[in-house]
Predict the 3D structure of the following.
Amino acid sequence: MEREQKRFESGDLPALRRIVCEQGLLSRPDGSASWMQGDTSVLVGVYGPTEVKVSKEIYDKATLEVMLKPKIGLPGVYERSREQMIKKTCEAAVLGTLHPRSSITIVLQVVTDAGSLLSSSLNATCVGLMDAGLPLNSLFCGVTCTLDAEGNLTLDPTTKQEKEARAVLTFAIDSTEKKVLMSNTKGTCSVEELQQCITASQRAADTIFQFYQDSAHRKYSKW
């Protein structure tokens, strides 16, 4: 029996590019999702909990692995660093202690990269975990923002805006207390500008979490 597929679109979100999300579109993974934010598109498959190799087994929690595959070629240093950021975020959200001595594998495939790739990958991962039905202590989302030479802030930037920016900052925000689970900064900014970016990202996170809720409601609604 094929998994039910649901497609949900955000329309035009304030300060964010248009989001299109589709869940359950792959049959082999336990959970899957396609996340498109603007022209950036990421496909994710979640496998597990499944049997884990003895060499990777952790006696009191699940072993979590993340693989990020670029659109073209083999993964490099860039992908490996992003994998670790996504993994640390997932470890903070997934209740791995409920599945000790097991493996949870998240595979991300970049379809197109038009800016804010890390935050889009984080969002795709969260929706994939939701589709897989894995227990989470909170949802999470990714938000990217940039600062230009004059200090102007832009949320959800394109590739062009990232290249022209003085600083590019990405945050993973949890849904319960709006805490920063992970941050990545490229460039220079002051402490005041950093706090400004965190505040803007937390506000944008509310919009993404509402999108998660509306998407899940549409998927499981009987109407």
Remarks:
- The chain is about 30% helix and 30% strand.
